[in-house]
């Protein structure tokens, strides 16, 4: 006779995890949440007060191999924040306000302590972004994941008035690109970063280039949420488009928000790259083009601003505590790939 637990799945550990995370998750509930955790589905009552043509905006994503850094460091309280903030940014650049978030946590052997810390990160970021954590799935699959490893995915749903959707359709020649700083790698490029850095350093090493931070601290810096500053720019009607700089770097992500007949010229000397990127490039002898297409290089958000409103946008951003940089402009598409980065 073989039990489910002997086969590798511990139902009791799942029950213990739910018991631990329940009170935390409930802290994120808004009045629109109608069902407690544990139901077969989550119920969210839309408050459409003030909307004429509300549109729901959704996105799903993961955090890639940054998870391997968390496992190596034995620190799991920030990775959930990364996931929520990444998803929030993806819909915020469309003009949406987040409503609710759902998570998927899969592992080989469920460890309630690890799951509790991961969910605590979800809770922290959901509360910071004003969205509810309405449900999730915890899967224990010993045949798919090595001991100690896990994977995460998240889905977010937000809302925006139809005539306030930011989709890049207003972008025109002469618009200016303003970049806002990232908080390190965010959630992209970790396969390359790990390959280069972990060949040379241990997780607790503090390379001189990082100014006293350990490698683990640097690589686990939380992916920023740009929600508040995005909403500030939109309410002031200062942007024609917004790009969240994730996989593909500045070239691929700015291209996503430009009309087909326009392209972006980016001046990569317009801002100071965080030291971690120079360390990766130098240590791994990584070609510059690969750096630009893999990492955000210190710019986590790009706002495409009408030329006549650049000073207003810069003033607004600085008043919000940001350190913006003018990093390029929009031009006619001259037959290239759509983004023509300059050195």
Tags for this entry?
six-stranded mixed beta sheet; Phosphoribosyl-aminoimidazole Synthetase, Chain A, domain 2; four-stranded mixed beta sheet; 60s Ribosomal Protein L30, Chain: A; alpha+beta; 343 residues; 2 domains; 22% strand
Total beta strand runs: 10
Q: Low-confidence runs (pLDDT<50, min 5 residues)?
A: 335-343
The structure class reads: alpha+beta
- The order of strands across the largest sheet is 6-8-5-9-7-10
Percent range for helical residues? 25-40%
What share of the residues does DSSP label as strand, in percent?
15-25%
The total of helices stands at 12
State the CATH topology of the largest domain: Phosphoribosyl-aminoimidazole Synthetase, Chain A, domain 2
Cα-to-Cα separation, first versus last residue:
67 Å
Annotated CATH architecture of the largest domain: Alpha-Beta Complex
CATH class of the largest domain: Alpha Beta
Q: How many discrete domains?
A: 2
